[in-house]
From TrEMBL:
Organismal lineage: Bacteria, Pseudomonadati, Pseudomonadota, Alphaproteobacteria, Rhodobacterales
Name of the protein described by the UniProt record: DUF4935 domain-containing protein
Source superkingdom: Bacteria
Biological source species: Pseudotabrizicola algicola
């Protein structure tokens, strides 16, 4: 991954980057994309806990594209999924549905263990990146990132899923 690459981000990454003051660098350093569901999630729930309102109009300007996953796309994904559907929240599920339809080069940044497990099971382990890794590519230190946004956490999770330990 290098500066300017395409990164798909979930709501948690948006919130954590705002909390740590790294959002501007992140969206200026990479081509960020997401889905509508993640935009909504970033402005509700956990977003209220950072004591900083993330304005919809300001947030939307930071993305190269914001995709609206359709009910048909969700149904097609469910029909094609072999076995039980993963326990992902709505934003993560929509982000994966969108990501798996892409034919270009992309990375996905999201700190949820279930999302990372799904990515590994879907054969996308090498496309999973931590917020810390993305920021380090921009020469930005992020010492105050919560543990599950750090590279060590993601590496441990990927190894455990690869070895079938989770």
């Amino acid at each position: 991954m290098k500066r300017g690459d395409l990164i798909l981000v979930d709501a948690c990454v948006i919130i954590e980057a705002h909390r740590t003051g790294t959002w501007t660098a992140l969206h200026k350093g990479f081509a960020l994309e997401t889905v509508e569901t993640c935009i909504v999630e970033a402005q509700t729930g956990k977003a209220n806990r950072i004591n900083q309102q993330i304005l919809d109009s300001d947030l939307r300007k930071c993305f190269q594209n914001i995709y609206a996953v359709t009910e048909l796309e969700r149904a097609m994904h469910a029909a094609n999924f072999d076995g039980e559907m993963p326990a992902l929240d709505a934003g993560e599920l929509d982000l994966w549905i969108h990501a798996l339809q892409r034919n270009d080069v992309w990375f996905l940044c999201g700190p949820d263990r279930a999302s990372m497990k799904f990515g590994c099971q879907a054969g996308q382990k090498d496309k999973l990146v931590s917020l810390e890794q993305a920021l380090s590519r921009l020469n930005i230190g992020a010492a105050n990132l919560k543990a599950h946004y750090q590279e060590r956490w993601l590496s441990d999770v990927k190894v455990k899923f690869t070895l079938g330990l989770h």
